[in-house]
Amino acid sequence: MTHFLESLPMKQTIGLLLFSLMPWGVGMNLGAAPAQAGETCNYINNNLFMAQAHQSRNQVWVSQGWWVIEPGNCVVYADTVSTFFKYNEDNPVGRQPLPNVSTIDLCVVNDRFTVYQANDAKVCDNQDGQMVTFVGIGSNREVLQANYDVPTPASGMTRGSASPNPAQFPLQGNFAY
User: Fold this and answer.
1) Which of 11, 76, 96, 143 has the most CB atoms in a 10 Å sphere around its CB?
2) Cα–chain-centroid distance for residue 78?
3) Does 98 reside within a domain?
4) Same structural domain for residues 49 and 127?
5) Same domain, yes or no: 100 and 60
């Protein structure tokens, strides 16, 4: 009985051998760039609400929210994502400068949302949203912490409450993009 490879011409045998080794070579990550990620950690004694944004394949800015980041937790996301954090509807989180960050004004909406063309103020107005500054930290690690109490808005919320209406923010847990 003849072996399968013996019945093939030499070119087909070499091609079949190389093709069969391809998954092994791909698994070795030959020539591919390693994945990069940014990370933000909440070291504030309050829940934080996170909106994230990215550019689609067609270069359209897309913003989405809200994810709750509990105290002591971190969120990891692609290095191409920009983020915006807030304590509640009226109070964005102050962020310390990091090397090689980018900023862009994009749209957020108070309820759960996805906005396409989020960099367009007219689109934002049509969504009853507001333009805020998102920060892209690349593959850096960012720690959000405060040496002061979280501001209490005039609406009578008590310090430590994250939102006047938690039902507005149904997404819970860490978000990895």
Assistant:
1) 76
2) 6
3) yes
4) yes
5) yes
pTM of the model: 0.63
Say yes or no: 53 and 1 in one domain: no
Judge if 22 and 49 occupy the same domain: no
Q: For the chain, 177 residues long, give each residue's pLDDT as a single digit of tens.
A: 555 445 545 444 444 333 334 444 444 444 555 557 889 999 988 899 999 999 999 999 999 999 999 999 999 999 899 999 998 877 888 887 777 889 999 999 999 999 999 999 999 999 999 999 999 998 888 888 875 444 444 433 333 333 333 333 333 344 333
